[in-house]
Amino acid sequence: MSAQHTTHEHHGSHHDGDTPHHDANEPHSTFSGYMTGFVLSIILTAIPFWLVMAKVIADRNTAVLVLGGFAVIQILVHMVFFLHMNGKVEGGWTLLATIFTVVFVAITIAGTLWVMFHMNANMMPDHPAMPGMPPAGADLRSSP
Q1: How many of the other CB atoms lie within 10 Å of CB of 81?
Q2: CB of 85 within 8 A of CB of 94?
Q3: Which of 37, 42, 45, 38 shows the shortest CA–CA distance to 67?
Q4: What's the confidence (pLDDT) of residue 57?
Q5: What pLDDT digit, counting tens, does each position of 94-115 carry?
Q6: What is this structure's pTM?
Q7: Backbone phi and psi for residue 29, each to the nearest 5 degrees, phi listed first
Q8: Tell me: the pLDDT tens digits for 11-42?
Q9: Residues 6 or more apart from 45 whose CB is under 8 A from it?
Q10: By CB neighbour count within 10 A (0-12 exposed, 13-18 middle, 19+ buried), where does 90 fall?
């Protein structure tokens, strides 16, 4: 390395081909950031565990919604504190791709559930009784 190149690095100026040591777009990992994420993850795991084990929520549907909410919050904590996803990294493209993926998966799951729940009604409609046929549920063994 030449003395000029070293001098330019120390003064913070760089040429078009050079990359700075600390780019504003790269994630900055700190011990306190990881510890914050770790503590939040422990809390967001312990609370739902306690809710289930102590049977705090009696209604099953409410319990599923509450536990699902804790799961979503924990996913967001992991994305922010461990994966360092925010609007600044890679010009926001990583976050945009993640949002697209979440929306796509949600639409796919919702559509699949809608089809599954409505399949029985749509595939097996009730037919009116045909003339000469016994009504539905009649015992055919007792006929003369």
Answers
A1: 19
A2: yes
A3: 45
A4: 94
A5: 888 888 999 999 999 999 999 8
A6: 0.56
A7: -95, 130
A8: 444 454 554 455 555 556 789 999 999 999 99
A9: 74
A10: middle
